[in-house]
Amino acid sequence: MAEHLWLDWVKSLRAISQTGLHFSRDPFDTERYQQVREIASRILEQQSNLSRQQIVELDASDLGYATPKVDVRGAVFQDGRILLVREISDHGRWTLPGGWADPNETPSEAVTREIREESGYLTRVLKLVGLYDRDKQGLVPPYPFHIYKHFFLCEITGGAAAGSVETSEAGFFAEDELPELSVARVSVHLIRRCFAHHRQPELATDFD
Predict the structure, then answer these.
(1) CB neighbour list of residue 167: distance below 8 Å, 6 or more residues apart
(2) Which of 4, 50, 109, 154 is 20 to 30 A off residue 80, Cα-Cα?
(3) What is the pLDDT of residues 117-157, one digit of tens each?
(4) Which residue has the higher pLDDT, 70 or 7?
């Protein structure tokens, strides 16, 4: 199959089956949607490095109407440098602090929580820098589900640099001195957009 085209098909099949299983009340329709999910799972297992168990867990985590997942990232600046954290799970590469938003919290609560947990800094949100479709931003590898990435400009209100169970350290970097990035989570282009919004806070929010 063409590179990544199969993944677009899998995402569509998974969304159709998940939404169908949520709304269907007919046992025959339910069986067909389960068959669609099984076909999508087999394609995903054959074409990716995910195990059968990982796919089962992925299916179990997504219930109800299929919608994109929400990823939040915080752009925090100090003396013109941006805060990055070193990922333990990605060969020590660096990224903006952030992660999945949790239920029962606002987007600003989600991103300030992630910043605190991964870097040790207390922050508050100043503005939404950008709302991006992950698939449109060239981040790799592709994921088997759709993701909207939210980038927030934040300022420090307290705390101090500290690692976590997910990150080994936190540090500030100039725009022309960025370390090796975790390209599954962020890109040089996206970080540069954060620098642009830091320099010009009046810029309108980016979006795809």
Answers:
(1) 85, 86, 87, 88, 97, 118, 119
(2) 109
(3) 999 999 999 999 999 999 999 899 888 889 999 999 999 99
(4) 70
> What does the domain layout of the chain look like in residue ranges?
5-61, 69-207
Is the domain 69-207 a CATH 3.90.79.10 member?
A: yes
Whole-prediction pTM:
0.80
CB 154 within 8 Å of CB 75: yes
Q: What are phi and psi of 123, to 5 degrees?
A: -140, 170
- Summarised one tens digit per residue, pLDDT across range 12-27 is 888 898 888 878 888 8
Cβ contacts of 71 within 8 Å, gap of 6 or more = 98, 99, 100, 101, 134, 147, 148, 149, 150
* Pair of tokens at residue 127: 């503005």
